[in-house]
Amino acid sequence: MKILKILAVLPLALALGNCEQKPAAGPSPYAFDVRLEITPEADALMKAKGNHFVAAAFYFGRPKPETRAQANANGRIKLGYEQIGLAPGATSFHLAADTIDASLLGAINGEPQVMLNVFSAGEVGARDDLVRCKTYFGIISTARAQSPVLACDINRP
User: Fold this and answer.
1) How many CB atoms lie within 10 A of CB 111?
2) Across all residues in the chain, what is the average pLDDT?
3) How wide is the angle at C-alpha 28 spanned by C-alphas 76 and 141, nearest 5°?
4) Contact 113, 104 (CB under 8 A)
5) Res. 123: pLDDT tops 90
6) C-alpha angle 58/59/63, rounded to 5°?
7) Which 3 state secondary structure label does DSSP give 135?
8) Residue 124 — very low, low, confident or very high, per pLDDT cuts 50/70/90?
């Protein structure tokens, strides 16, 4: 009887033992936080219009001489793009940077960089540019070491 139980469980044990276990994906090594400094006038306008901010991050690198043909018209190799909508009233947010294509890192000179734009959007998410924040342009490791602070104010022509 004991042998029958062992024989009954053996195929299941063998099947489970052959399962390929993938390690859990952790946070991106390029993730960082950003703070917004919003003027009182801009904050009041955003609240009155029911607007929120949208953050758009373009991750890139400068090409090595042998990979210049892969660069875009601005001379950059695109590593990834991330866009997130912020909750109304948010003054800080986290960029996961999990869209960065690590397979392209060997094609760039130096460290990966980010160009970050933050702008206002209406209730349906359409960009309206009533309020704009300063653009952040820098090396990702610098942003990780010290969270960028972007000043935001009413967009005046």
Assistant:
1) 14
2) 86
3) 55
4) no
5) no
6) 120
7) coil
8) confident
